Amino acid sequence: MEVVDRQVKEVIKDKIDQCMEQDPEQTMAYLRANLPMLWSWGATRFVFDKSFRLLQFFVRGRHHHGHVWIFLNGSNLFDFWLSTPQGRIKAEVTDLYFDQLAEEIDKAVEYIPEYTH
Question: Is the pLDDT of residue 3 over 50?
Answer without folding.
Answer: no
